[in-house]
Amino acid sequence: MRWAGLIPAGYSAVLAALIAGPLLGSGYLLLRDAVSTPRSYLTDSALGLGDAAPRAVPQDALLAAMSPIVDGGLLVKAMLLVTLWAAGYGAAVLARELLAVPVGPQLVATTVAMWNPFVAERLLQGHWSLLTGYAALPWTALVAYRLRAAGSSIAAWGALAGCLAAAGLTPTGSLLAGCVALLTVGRRNMLGTLVLLAAASAPWLAATALSGAGGEPSDPAGVAAFAARAEPGLGTLGSLAGLGGIWNADAVPNSRTTPIAIVATALLLVIVASGFRAVAAARPDDRAGLRIRRTLLAMAVAAVALPALAATGWGMEVMRWLVVDVPGAGLLRDTQKYVALAMPAYALCAAAGCRALAARIGERAANSADTRTVARGGAVATRSVAALFIALLVVPLLDLAWGVGGSVRPVHYPIGWQRVAEEIEKPGDVAILPGGMFRRFPYSGKVAVLDPAPRMLPRDVLQTGRLPVRGLTVAGEGTRAVEVENTLLHGDPAQRLADLGVGWVLVERSTPGPLGDSAKTLAQLEPRYADDHFALYRVPGAADRATESQGAHRIIAIVAHLLWIALLIGGLLTAAVRRPGRAVRR
């Protein structure tokens, strides 16, 4: 029995390897929004101080700081594997602590957390860092339970700090974990939780305040473009209830485009419904657990219902008002990602349902006079029901295995990227051709991928932030990058680039895209490097736009990042060193 606690951890590791298997080989993750590179740099953009809203902070700064020591591609793959494992194991531990279920139901909770459309779709969209916030949710609920059940302790507060900081790898992750924490810790722990959440969010809060980009209104066209999508036969509400419905119809497993999606959603909801009453049931010896469980159930209902409402006509009107009139509300436009908040409750309900069904089956053996036979029959029933539930969850979404059917796989960059990076020096930022932020390289596969240049090059790369979504173009927040791109496409004099602070122009030759009359401007520039994939030019007369205030902003942003990393490492170490015993004995 001492080893029983290790079974969910091992099972989670097996599922993580099965899901991310292709990434165990050499190469780099480059798929839609996911970009990993051998080396990245601590530019202003990496700190969130560029023109665009700081959506990848502190993720980019962490990779920039670590990649000189450890290959950046290896870092991303390791973080993704740990994230998947943590999501599954966290769900198992949460079910064990809040429901006191045996190993079989814990494995069911693990399967619900790891093997679902949300994980598949976010992997296909390249949102690996968002999954870090997703993985932190069951752990955050668990720490909140321990704070309420056993009272405040250094270990519990350290664990909460570590959870919020880990989730804070992206701003959305902070919001997800913050919602769970603030709704579950209880009133007496609210102030301390708010302080920790603010500290864990310091990198992107500081970047938003310093750059001003996050405070600018977002393009209202993004509301319809990023609204939750109705899958065939399910509608928007059914898609969200099944933990699917991402806005990008191309970033879904093949099984979700067939009637199998209806079957998979029905099976998931039946399994979840089978344990709903047990999770909501009152237990006189565990008031803290009851409040946490009921809060998680209410959160799951809201996480499904509110994104569905936001996809209606009047819901979109409300969302447009938010993103236009409320600074920073652009973080809310991709409403489907908040269905992640349903995962902890779904995992608990599935585990409780497994135990309840096994108990009913075990009652039939209760007439036997042999107590050992009764106990053995109950254990067999639990294992059998757990195996059945796991099969019903896995088989309809079998194409999640092996990198979602091989789509999530590593690529290999041409050596030209390294040579271009070695050529670029001060002063001036980098402009990119062709226009746009997305590329189709020969080595990156069939889908459009985010241009890796901002992470590959040692100077800030100017990008417009324009996103092509569902046939629409959603505008970015900044204006300088748009001016630079228009200058190139219109063939304006090179001096105009220099005046805008551009010192380099990189032409990515192996991807399609608009070039306009840029040849006129390029003819006035100094060629510095060329091969089959790239042509690099130096802009004469370029000057560095760095000012004293920008230097001060960098210092503040770096301090905010250091606070975040201290919270992450210090919190997790405190929780590990001063690990508490069981919060409640049942």
List the helices and strands and how they pair.
Elements lengths: L5 H14 L8 E4 L2 E2 L23 H8 L5 H28 L3 H12 L2 H9 L4 H21 L3 H14 L3 H14 L5 H11 L1 H10 L9 H5 L9 H7 L18 H15 L1 H5 L6 H24 L2 H13 L17 H21 L7 H24 L6 H6 L3 E2 L4 H8 L5 E5 L4 E2 L9 E2 L2 H4 L10 E3 L2 E3 L5 H10 L4 H6 L2 E7 L9 H5 L3 E5 L3 E5 L9 H30 L9
Parallel strand pairs: 4-9
Antiparallel strand pairs: 1-2, 1-3, 5-6, 7-8, 9-11, 10-11
Helix pairs in contact: 1-3, 1-4, 3-4, 3-6, 3-17, 4-17, 4-18, 6-7, 6-8, 6-15, 7-8, 7-9, 7-25, 8-9, 10-25, 12-15, 13-17, 15-17, 17-18
What is the 3D shape?
Answer: globular
Rg calc: 25 Å
Sheet with the most strands: spatial strand order: 4-9-11-10
- The average pLDDT is 92
Q: Which sheet architecture does the biggest sheet show?
A: 4 strands, mixed
Q: What structural class should be given to the helix and strand makeup?
A: alpha+beta
